[in-house]
Design goal:
The protein is an alpha/beta fold and about 425 residues long. It has 16 helices and 17 strands. The chain has two domains: about 220 residues, 3-Layer(aba) Sandwich (Rossmann fold), CATH 3.40.50; about 170 residues, Rossmann fold (3-Layer(aba) Sandwich), CATH 3.40.50.2300. The strands form three sheets. Strands 1-2-4-3-5-6-7 form a seven-stranded mixed β-sheet, with helices on both faces.
């Protein structure tokens, strides 16, 4: 199929076009062949599709703004997209196709398995890969390499923030882990156990849940084990539609008032999928939510939220914010480097500090992990959400931790690399 070309507008119509074609090019009007192509490798279908759609919206909005201001190095940006359907093998084939089309950089992902494999393939083509939603520690630890930069936080950072909040309030409670059976789930459980003092699997048991495409019966069987174990706290390590399915099953079993429910990574897209009634009271972590700029007075973040709402009639999720930020970080790195050469872009990114939608962030040179503040949130009551603008004020911010207080130390990072036989510097 020939790539369709449309004017870059971060509107619902543009997003619908992105979902219609497996590869779509979006560029503000410019002479053919002069654009800088960015490849968004994202789930337009499947159980994480809402997160993927949000990434497309955020990326399109950034590209429209940058092109209106003169582009990058005097050239307009163009967006190429490919649907991963959250399938690692498909994501790898997408990287090959996007590289062949001339992408200067790749980004995206709503599954860590996708991001890890796509990032490795990008490295084979000497291209940068920016991870959007990839929370597994492995992305920038065991599987980290020079060409991978993670824009969001990792499971370690989310767990440390959640531990700081939960340890004061849930001492003496029995935890049960209901974990998605893939790399994000495993690393999230390990990190959460470490930072909540629940490493004793006899005292705080758990079970793995089939991934991908778990069924309601899989959720029900896991929840029955939690009830049998006498759990007080359910660590629900599920994401996207799977998290919503688990919560619906909890309500159908009448367990919502019997368990404190913790979801390690919460996003607005997940909240909307689950619904205000069944998400009420759920605690989780987030790298960003649209309430953050208003709570802490970040003016650029407010402007982003308000423009996004005008264009899309919905609030931006952390997925949209991540894709938007990545496009701007690519622009800034290219301008600092004065080049699109991958090695020069890597050098321009490493150690760079910036503020965009919240407080200061840093691309740590050691592991290419984005060091940033982490937020612990709780879903508001159904009544509060239904009375809010667009009925999307889901999250109450409970705690904020600085990135330096959550990120792994260099010694911890090297110890994990050493344990899997990985080199102690990124290759």
């Amino acid at each position: 199929m020939h790539a369709a070309v449309v004017r870059t507008v971060a509107r619902s119509a543009a997003t619908l076009l992105l979902l219609t074609f497996p590869f779509l090019s979006a560029v503000q009007a410019a002479p053919a062949g002069e654009s800088i192509k960015l490849g968004l490798n994202y789930p337009a279908t499947g159980r994480y599709k809402e997160e993927g759609i949000a990434q497309a919206q955020g990326a399109l909005m950034a590209i429209e703004e940058i092109n209106a201001a003169g582009g990058v190095l005097g050239r307009p940006l163009e967006l190429l997209t490919a649907n991963t359907a959250s399938d690692p093998a498909k994501a790898v084939e997408n990287v090959k196709a996007l590289a062949k089309q001339g992408a200067a950089m790749l980004f995206g992902g709503s599954s860590s398995a996708v991001a890890v494999e796509a990032g490795k393939e990008a490295a084979r083509h000497q291209l940068l890969y920016f991870g959007t939603l990839t929370y597994a520690n492995e992305t920038t630890v065991a599987d980290g390499h020079r060409h991978m930069f993670r824009e969001t936080y990792n499971a370690h950072m989310a767990a440390k923030a959640l531990g700081a909040y939960l340890n004061e309030r849930l001492q003496g409670k029995k935890f049960f882990y209901m974990t998605a059976d893939y790399n994000w789930g495993w690393s999230s459980e390990t990190s959460l156990r470490n930072y909540t003092g629940t490493t004793d699997v006899n005292q705080h048991p758990g079970t793995l849940v089939a991934y991908p495409r778990p069924r309601e019966n899989d959720m029900r069987n896991a929840l029955e084990l939690a009830v049998k174990a006498g759990a007080d706290v359910l660590m629900l390590i599920q994401f996207g539609d799977d998290m919503a399915l688990a919560l619906r099953t909890i309500h159908s079993m009448g367990l919502q008032d019997k368990l404190t429910i913790v979801v390690p990574n919460l996003t607005l897209a997940m909240a909307k999928t689950a619904g205000s009634g069944i998400l009420e009271g759920v605690i989780g972590a987030a790298p960003w939510s649209w309430q953050v700029p208003y709570r802490y007075g970040y003016e650029q973040g407010k402007a982003f939220v308000e423009k996004f709402v005008r264009l899309n009639a919905t609030y931006p999720t952390s997925s949209a914010a991540s894709a938007y930020s990545i496009v701007y970080q690519f622009k800034d790195a290219a301008e600092r480097a004065g080049s699109l050469d991958t090695n020069r872009l890597i050098k321009a990114l490493e150690g760079h500090k910036y503020s965009l939608l919240k407080d200061e962030q840093e691309w740590r040179a050691l592991d290419h992990q984005n060091v940033q503040s982490v937020y612990v949130v709780r879903s508001r009551t159904r009544e509060e959400i239904l009375q809010s603008h667009l009925r999307e004020d889901f999250f109450e911010i409970l705690l904020r931790l600085d990135g330096k207080d959550t990120v792994q130390t260099p010694d911890e990072w090297r110890a994990e690399r050493r344990a899997v036989g990985a080199p102690l510097t990124l290759q």
